[in-house]
Design brief:
Layout lengths: L5 E6 L3 H23 L5 H22 L2 E7 L2 E7 L6 E4 L3 E8 L2 H5 L3 E4 L6 E4 L4 E7 L4 E5 L3 H11 L5
Parallel strand pairs: 7-9
Antiparallel strand pairs: 1-2, 2-3, 3-4, 5-8, 6-7, 8-9
Length: 166
Amino acid sequence: MAKAVFEERQRFNQWWIWLIILGIFAYEVYLLTDMVQEETLNSKTLSSYLLIMLPILIVLLVFLFSSLYTRIDESGIQTVFKPFGFTKKSFSWRAIETVETITYSPLKDFGGWGYRLSFSGKGTAYNVKGNQGISIQLKNGKKFLIGTQKSEQALEVIESFSPSKK
């Protein structure tokens, strides 16, 4: 009988995030419209405007298309924070000292959501929303946290594979 596999894909889809993004876009449209109405839109002001706003728009677009993918199977735990390939991590069951599902504080423990590094010794976090996560301590001492919206299902699969579950 094949053991269960856990897969989860999460996105930044909280209403308040969309409100912030829409507010930024509305402000951009307002600034551009104001420049056109005051007839101050020339090549110099447009290039200055684009120089400031283009990086902000790129960050917002990347943010909108970001997703956290997690898979737990017989080989271990894999995760990636797309579209950033450097965030791809695989943890084999042999390399894991302990693994458990926990409740944590994203702001207090990691300073927010996303790909986060903790300077207080809590390790690296991959999270997009909520306060539930899969806490992984490797045998080499490194710590990772992967956010999940399905902690009970993740725990069931972890328990079926991990020799050192909590």
